[in-house]
Design a protein that fits this description.
Strands 5-4-1-8-9-10-11-12-13 form a 9-stranded mixed β-sheet, sandwiched between helices. The chain starts with 8 loop residues before the first strand and ends with a helix. 31% of the residues lie in helices and 30% in strands. Helix 1 crosses helix 7 and helix 5 crosses helix 6. By secondary structure, the chain is an alpha/beta fold. The protein is built from 7 helices and 13 strands.
Length: 275
Amino acid sequence: MNLDFSNINVLLVGDFMLDHYLYGVSNRQSPENPVPVICPTKEDFFAGGAGNVAMNVVSLGGKVVPVGIIGNDFNGKILLNILEKSGINKDFLLETDTYRTTTKKRIFSNDHPIARIDHEDIVDNSILINDMFQKIKSSISDIDVLIISDYNKGVIDERFSQLLIDLCNENKIPIIVDPKKLDFKIYKNATIITPNFLEIQNVLKIFTNFDSISSSCHSLIEKLNIDALAVTRSADGISLIKNNKIFSVNGKKIKNPDVTGGGDTAISALALSCW
């Protein structure tokens, strides 16, 4: 297997977010309400959502062209700075005054998570379709693989998804989709869709073990006219369902795993490996 991804150009379209971590210590309760009084000790900011996918692609040695919408606000500037420091081109990222940058703020007290605060707006993707699609189309010859990173924040809908998928199929470019919607028809004719186990259970409406849903997965592949499903299964690893067969890689057991962004890592590695 070729593990040199330096010449692979990934077109990444999706919902870009900022992950904000606030750490603090607490040794008393508030007299106003039964909640801890936290004295902040550290703050961290990371690219989240499709931004985390971009960071993973670059960390694996590939090149990425990110396409999405970021608010023209303080959090948006932080996110753009994180991406720029990793050498990621921001020319296809639209900054807008209309929406806030999607931000997930996680608060920790004495190393334990106690709250998450989400700032988000569901965006109107027409500005992407109108302003960016022709630009994507004109540079498609430079692209080796498309990742659609759908976090259900408005960038990916059926029209935009099918425009991207049709364009890449016409140019024989593989399309890898990380889905969030329960109706997979908007990803029809993609190459591989990568739901996690809970997501595929919800899509199929079958809430049993993985072996019991495999036949329904085969039917879904035919219905959507895709090549395969790659189902991430947390500690149980990942299973590729293709040509009425299942190929599984077991998970490696580690102590105190941090599974945040695991799907982003999986789709990044898969996209770089499949072209």
